[in-house]
Write a structure and sequence with these properties.
With 130 residues, the chain is α+β, with helices and mostly antiparallel strands. It is built from two helices and four strands; from the N terminus they run βββαβα. The chain has helices at residues 76-91, 113-121; strands at residues 6-21, 31-46, 57-62, 100-105. The chain has a four-stranded mixed beta sheet with strand order 1-2-4-3. The longest helix is centred in the middle third of the chain and has 16 residues, at 76-91. The protein is globular, with a radius of gyration of 16 Å.
Length: 130
């Protein structure tokens, strides 16, 4: 049960397509094309908009596995921690000044495409800044 002073919203985002160009690192000099990435976005906001100060806090993890295999995500412990953190925040968020966004994304195994698609296609909608 959510604390009475917070609103809880769940959004779904479908990144239909995009391209992720890398300057350095493992994929340096390469451009990766992605499509059909699905993300779940859980937002916990102060009930009264005037109480929200500054940018939201973004917590992110992925729930996919390697493209060529079936199976549970390799980061399931991160997802479990995020779910428990979300439960704690929405039960005990009295006086919380920032909204918290929990991003559960896909497309991370092949070049962090899930996080990239969120930052380039959705981030501004939620007023998240780096």
């Amino acid at each position: 049960m959510a604390h009475w002073e917070v609103d809880v919203q769940v959004d779904f985002f479908h990144a239909k397509s995009g391209a992720n160009s890398f300057v350095s690192g493992l994929f340096g000099g390469k451009t990766l094309i992605y499509s059909d990435l699905y993300h779940i976005i859980l937002r916990i906001l102060p009930k009264y908009a005037s109480e929200a100060e500054g940018s939201p806090i973004l917590v992110s993890s992925h729930f996919d596995t390697v493209f060529s295999t079936e199976g549970a995500g390799d980061c399931s412990s991160c997802v479990a921690v995020m779910l428990e953190l979300a439960r704690g925040v929405f039960q005990w968020a009295h006086g919380f000044n920032n909204s918290v966004i929990f991003l559960f994304n896909t497309g991370e195994e092949e070049g962090l495409n899930g996080a990239y698609s969120f930052i380039t296609q959705v981030c501004s909608i939620y007023d998240v800044s780096a």
